[in-house]
Amino acid sequence: SQELEQSPQSLIVQEGKNLTINCTSSKTLYGLYWYKQKYGEGLIFLMMLQKGGEEKSHEKITAKLDEKKQQSSLHITASQPSHAGIYLCGADGGYGQNFVFGPGTRLSVLP
Amino acid sequence: GAGVSQSPSNKVTEKGKDVELRCDPISGHTALYWYRQSLGQGLEFLIYFQGNSAPDKSGLPSDRFSAERTGGSVSTLTIQRTQQEDSAVYLCASSFGRGTGELFFGEGSRLTVL
Description:
A: globular; B: mainly beta; six-stranded mixed β-sheet; globular
């Protein structure tokens, strides 16, 4: 079955700093999804990437998909305390495969 | 409703009791997922329903866990003879179908087994 790894496991940055979170898949990615979770709450959808080399941005968050490497990166520019939370990547492994999630990256932004 | 609704939001039970958790997906969504999230851990896939197809139960951790989806809409996750290790947040998500877009999540049901 497909497995997703994320790095780093946790991250503490000063407000205003840039940061990058990585997601690596053990198999070909048919669709890669980024979610954010506040502690004890449900997941909020951020972005979906499907094509190799695709890049999407929303406000100060940019996500890229490198399909050849089976990797995706999430980049936050000029981080703010509101960016704090757990970021999870998820993937649809295709027919017959489950929709799985990475273990998450816990982000803390210090004011 | 506009979003995925889960109930109860919190459930405290004694070891050995049975519990039922309910999920009401977004209207029109044919796919429904259950996940479990233990404290500080990632999401563990439990079960997946797609339309009238047989559910994918490959993630259920034991035969104490079961789920059903009536009329292709509301789903109930049942845990029999609960154990302390069952304590977790149980998250439900729905979508239009596999590969057709993002999953929409409910707020989760927090289960505590004493």
